[in-house]
Amino acid sequence: MEIQKELKLPCGVTLPNRLGKSAMSENMAIPGHAPGIEFVNLYKTWARGGTGICISGNVMIDSRHLGEANNVVIEKGIKNHEGLKSWAKAQENSSMHIWLQLNHPGKQTPKFLTKEPVSPSAVPLVPPLDRMFNTPRELSEEEILDIIERFGYAAKVAKDCGFKGVQIHGAHGYLVSQFFSPHHNQRNDKWGGSLENRMRFAVEVYKSMRAAVGPEFPIGIKMNSADFSKGGFSHEDAVGVAKSLSELGIDLIEISGGSYEKPVMTGASVKESTKKREAYFLEYAKDIKAVISCPLMVTGGFRTAEFMNEALKNDELDLVGLGRPLCINPNFSKQLLNGEDVVSEVRPLSSGVKILDKIFPLEIIWYSHQIQLMGKGKAPKPNSGVYGTIFRSAIDTGLQSIRRVRA
Question: Are residues 382 and 329 in contact, defined by beta-carbon separation less than 8 angstroms?
């Protein structure tokens, strides 16, 4: 089977198979922004599940700017390296590679976490998201350079602590993605305007990381195939960015799509014909595949081994990205690799109330809860309802808000 084949990256590292766990937020760091035993339990579970590469959820590079209250953070002055080393050891006695996904949320940080978020430009998120996220302040040149340096520092720490690679989160509306977008990035300096200028931030982030880790350590990027929103990052833009990063030497490009404003990555607004053929973004992959020399990972909508093998055989992608399926069935990859007749159990999630679904991103918090169950050494609950998740999220948000005010 195609999914069983190894994959060699440009830096010389070889992945054991063609199945990759795409990043899913864990949101379970212990005080000090450190990964505790829950991360070790979780990633050991996935290591036993047979997936070749396992990309972590958001690891933030600035403790002042979090996507969620319990994000792991890597920055100067935070003494959590022992926890990171323990987490990295979860890949031992398996062929799995754990990569850390490094991120800065930009404006996508809730009000109760950050009173003054930052972004390329002072453009707020659209209603009703503006109820949860403050209008951002435009970044200064000095701040941009500081963030670039932080990405490099975090990559070096990840390498030193034993992780086997890192990924830049350049998708789903976070800061790198905001720089890409003509809507969110309305700057008139060298960081905005033309595509060359809008991609400059990502290019400099990659160069900072590469200088920090050397030529033989894998660096990837997750980016949108398009934002699917008016005036946003277009598919043509995505092709141009992918081509430039590949030419610079990046080791793996993962494509997804959408943002909090347009959550296409969850299957929302995806055409029924696309859902039936699996792989939400595969139709966009061919244009990117045609201009890059590094491997391409496509994430979103894969359900069966038959379709995965066909897509790989047809050279439509090099790595199959799996996210939600591995949150409710951590052995899904092993079953696929063993030739079992298994289908992804992922199902649409909704409270039945549109405004509630927009305020509480169910496709994030429900699956995060499944992840947290595995972190506690428990089995996921694929049939659990959504209202319990909403209630837990509301309570947690309130408690975190109180803690921030008291702090």
Answer: yes
